[in-house]
Amino acid sequence: MSGSKSCPKCGRKMETGFVIDAGDYSAPTTPFWHPGEPDKRWYGLKIDKRARKPVETWRCTSCHYLESYAP
Predict the structure, then answer these.
(1) 8 A C-beta contact, residue 9 and residue 58
(2) Are 13 and 60 in contact (CB under 8 A)?
(3) In the chain, domain spans
(4) CB under 8 A, 24+ apart: contacts of 1-9
(5) CATH of span 1-20+54-71
(6) Is residue 1 predicted with pLDDT exceeding 60?
(7) How does pLDDT run across 16-34, given as a tens digit for each residue?
(8) Do residues 21 and 31 lie in contact, with contact meaning Cβ atoms separated by under 8 Å?
């Protein structure tokens, strides 16, 4: 995450950060975006690791609005 962003809600400064995904029975990770509809299996979701994109999250320092991107 680089550069600076202005909040689309109030126009103030946004800061970079991350959202923690604490799934069942696994270590906390940062979330990913995956194209398409979820392919549910008995053990969870079928995913293509090459297709997933890490999610970047920005937070407004004034109104606390969160905005996420998957570049």
Answers:
(1) no
(2) yes
(3) 1-20+54-71
(4) 1/56, 1/58, 5/58, 5/67, 7/60, 7/62, 7/63, 7/65, 7/67, 8/65, 8/67, 9/60, 9/63, 9/65
(5) 2.20.25
(6) no
(7) 998 887 766 677 888 889 9
(8) yes
